[in-house]
Design a protein that fits this description.
- The chain is mainly alpha-helical and about 260 residues long.
- It has helices at about 80, 90-95, 105-120, 125-145, 170-175, 190-195, 195-205, 210, 235-250; strands at about 1-5, 10-15, 20, 35, 215-220, 225.
- The strands form 3 sheets. It has a two-stranded antiparallel sheet. Strands 3-4 form a two-stranded antiparallel ribbon.
- Helix 2 packs across helix 3.
- The longest helix is centred in the middle third of the chain and has 21 residues, at about 125-145.
- The N and C termini lie far apart (about 75 Å).
- The structure holds zinc ion (ZN) (2 copies).
- One zinc ion binds near residues 35 and 90.
Length: about 260
């Protein structure tokens, strides 16, 4: 599949570059999606910045490969094979049920948040995984083409329904929350604080008619486990959560030393 980069107008190719899962499809009354970018053109927006964990020491730093300055900030070759991806416009429509306006500051701000969440989802996969997957795809595609058979290797371009069924809005709220002043770090909230948004979402989901009235369950003797739909349990949201935790790290204020009475 070929397209045109929304950033630089160069020709894009799937799955090397980034294509929206809704590419070429009209959803509801909205015009067809043309969201595709050269992988290097899909970048973090300058408009809003979020904290990134730096390799300060060997104690408790989760990411040790920070020599890659593009980490979390730019998409990679083959990313669309490894993560669920809808373009910024598609997510804007999913969340607001309208088209984004180019001249609106609030719309531009929301699009910036969407871009950050999307990049976080892409970076939930290690670069080595993405690279190996891309190479394997090329090999498998070559075999299939040589043998003249059709195989389902383009499943990542498959239209998503309108709306948010994966907790994308919760992810945006968490990012917004992270910009608030925290207790330990003067400039921002910690991961442990913002993750409470997920707990709130879970509580509300369980209180809904859909889940609260659900009688679907697994039973073994006297033990019973109910089945429920929780948006923040989606593969998508858990991928976001993992990256969010690693990116933010945590700042601990050491307790004052206490003397021990012998
Ligand atoms: Zn480009
Ligand atoms: Zn799209």
């Amino acid at each position: 599949m070929r397209g045109t980069c929304r950033e630089c107008s160069q020709i894009t190719r799937a799955p090397r570059d980034i294509f929206c899962a809704n590419y070429g499809v009209s959803r509801g009354s909205f015009r067809s999606c043309q969201g595709s970018w050269c992988y290097r053109c899909y970048k973090a927006p300058a408009k809003i910045k979020f904290h990134r964990q730096l390799p300060e020491n060997d104690h408790g730093t989760l990411w040790n490969k920070m020599e890659d300055k593009s980490r979390f900030l730019i998409a990679r070759r083959g990313d669309m094979l490894c993560s669920p991806f809808q373009c910024d416009r598609s997510w804007f429509i999913n969340l607001t049920n309208r088209e984004p306006r180019d001249q609106s500051a609030s719309d531009l701000s929301l699009r910036a948040y969407i871009r950050w969440v999307n990049l976080d989802i892409l970076w939930s996969r290690e670069s080595s995984t993405v690279e190996k997957t891309m190479n394997l795809y090329n090999k498998a595609r070559e075999f299939a083409n040589t043998m003249g058979i059709r195989i389902n290797l383009d499943s990542t371009i498959y239209t998503w329904p309108l709306g948010d069924g994966v907790g994308f809005s919760e992810a945006i709220v968490m990012l917004r929350y992270s910009l608030e002043k925290g207790n330990n770090a003067k400039s921002r909230c910690q991961y442990d604080t913002i993750r409470k948004v997920r707990a709130l979402s879970t509580k509300m989901n369980e209180s809904s008619a859909k889940n609260g009235a659900s009688a679907m369950s697994f039973r073994s003797g006297s033990h019973c486990v109910n089945l429920a739909t929780r948006l923040t349990d989606s593969i998508f949201f858990r991928a976001f959560l993992k990256v969010c935790q690693h990116q933010m790290g945590s700042i601990t204020v050491q307790d004052t030393a206490l003397s021990i009475q012998m």
